[in-house]
Specification:
Layout (H helix, E strand, L loop, with lengths): L3 H14 L11 E5 L2 E6 L2 H8 L4 H10 L3 E6 H23 L8 H16 L6 H9 L9 E5 L4 H13 L2 E8 L7 H13 L4 E5 L3 H8 L6 H19 L3 E4 L10 E4 L2 E5 H4 L4 H8 L13 H9 L4 H13 L5 H10 L1
Parallel strand pairs: 2-3, 4-5, 4-7, 5-6, 7-9
Antiparallel strand pairs: 1-2, 8-9
Helix pairs in contact: 1-3, 4-5, 6-7, 7-12, 14-15
Amino acid sequence: MYTKEEIINKIIKIREDIGHDYVEPEIKDLYYENDELTIITPDRPEKSIIIGKGGWVVGKLREELKVNSIHVISYTDIVLKEYQLELSVKHTKKLIDNNVIPDKYQDIFNNLYKLLSQKQKAPYDNTIVANYIRENIDRTPLVDTKVAVALSGGVDSSFSTILAKALGFNVIALTVNPGTIVLPKQFRYNIDNLTSQINVPHEYIKTDMSEIINDALTGKIHPCGRCSSHIEGEVSRKVKEIGCHMMIYGDLLSTGSQSIVEKEDIIRINLPALFRMEKSEIKNVVTNYSVKKIKGYGCPLVVQVHKKYPQYRPFSIQRVLRETRAGILEPGEALDLIRTI
C-alpha cells in the first residue's frame, strides 16, 4: 500500500488540478483492510483539507488509489468515540455482572460485550461490526424467546435488525403502519426486502394517527414528537401482548448508560448508540441487505409541513444538528439533509 508521503503528494496534486489552494496536509496514521482505506488526521481542519470542497479531493484520491472506499477520520473524533465506547463496555459489563440480564440471554450478551470491547480497541476501524455481521448473519438464534425490533424501514432501524440477528437474538420485527403519509412505499420496500433476505418474521401494526396528521397539516404542531411517542406506545403495547421482555431500537444518540435501560420490566437496547455507530458505517452495512438509501429528510407528512409552515423547519434542522454535534453525521451529510428541509 502507499506510504503517508505518497498519499500526501497525491492530495497536493489533486488539489492543484481541481483549483484548490495549495496546502500540505498532515496524516497521523493509515489503516487499510478489505479494500477500504482509513486516513487518520490530527484534527478536523486537516480532515477538511483531504476531503476537499464537496468531497472532490477524497473522491479523486479514491479513483487514483483504486480502492473501494476511503474514510477520513480526525484523531480528536476518535478520542471521543473511544471514550463513548468505553462507557458502553463498562455499562454492559455492569448489567451482566449484576444479573440485570436474564440468564437465557447471557451467551448473547457475552458476544455483544466481546464485540463492543473489540470496537473500543480500534474505534477507527469501520469493518469490525460489518465483518461480525457477515460471519454470523445466518446463525441459528441462541434463545427461543422472541426479542422485538422496532423496524421503520430507515437505515438505523434496519441496522439494528441486522445486528440483533447476527448477535443471536430470536428477532421479530414490528412496524407501526399509520398509512402512506407516514410510512410510504419506499420504507415498506426496505422492510419487506430486509426481513425476507435475513429470514426474520415481521408484523405490521395498524394504527390510527388521524388526529396527529390533522394537527400537523393544519399547522398546530410539528408532528415528529407526537408521532414518535405514539409509535413507541404502539410498539410497547404489542411487545407486552406477545410476551417479549426485550426491545431493540435504532436510536443513535442515547450512548453510554442510556444505551441499555430497563423500563416497566422491559429491557430497551439502542443498538446503534451502544456501538457508537456513525451514519456512514450504518449505510455501508445495510446496503448489503437490500436496504436502499431514502433521500431527503423525514416522511411525506413532515415534507408537507415544511412546505406549508416554514416556521417548523428549524425544529427539523435542530434534529439534524444534534446528530452532527454528536459526531454521528458528517457536516457534508448534515448539509445535504438541511437543504432538503
